[in-house]
Design a protein that fits this description.
123 residues, mainly beta, six-stranded antiparallel β-sheet, two-stranded antiparallel ribbon, 8 strands, 46% strand
């Protein structure tokens, strides 16, 4: 039951970023290559991203991502783990929840700058 309380560790902000996933991998060297599937990032936080895609990606797999948040020099290179998937109602798209793996807290300033930029646009 949803009691309206945010349970995430970090604030989630809307995003409109595009990525292309070409290879998925798992820790035991299992790889899925030549995926070449476009995805649309819809929200982001310090701990992960939410995205939509027409492709079905397996839960528990990882991919490498380069996310540009705001300024040209604010590119975040990261490993992302797929932890949730659900098909969107009346659609051939899927919604995914992912977490960043091994993200250094020194990169928090990128998220803070992006949150400030989003807040400034919505005022």
């Amino acid at each position: 039951m949803n009691d309206g309380i945010e349970k995430r560790r970090h604030r989630r902000v809307e995003a409109d970023l595009k990525l292309v996933v070409s290879t998925l991998f798992k820790q035991n060297n299992v790889k899925i290559q030549n995926v070449d599937s476009p995805i649309r990032v819809i929200n982001i936080s310090k701990s992960g991203i939410g995205f939509e895609s027409q492709s079905v990606f397996p839960i528990g797999f990882y991919f490498n991502a380069a996310l540009r948040l705001g300024a040209e020099d604010s590119v975040l290179y990261c490993v992302v783990k797929i932890i949730r998937c659900q098909q969107l109602e009346n659609s051939d798209y899927y919604s995914y929840g992912c977490e960043f793996v091994g993200m250094s807290s020194i990169l928090d300033y990128i998220f803070e700058d992006y949150e400030d930029e989003i807040d400034a646009k919505t005022k």
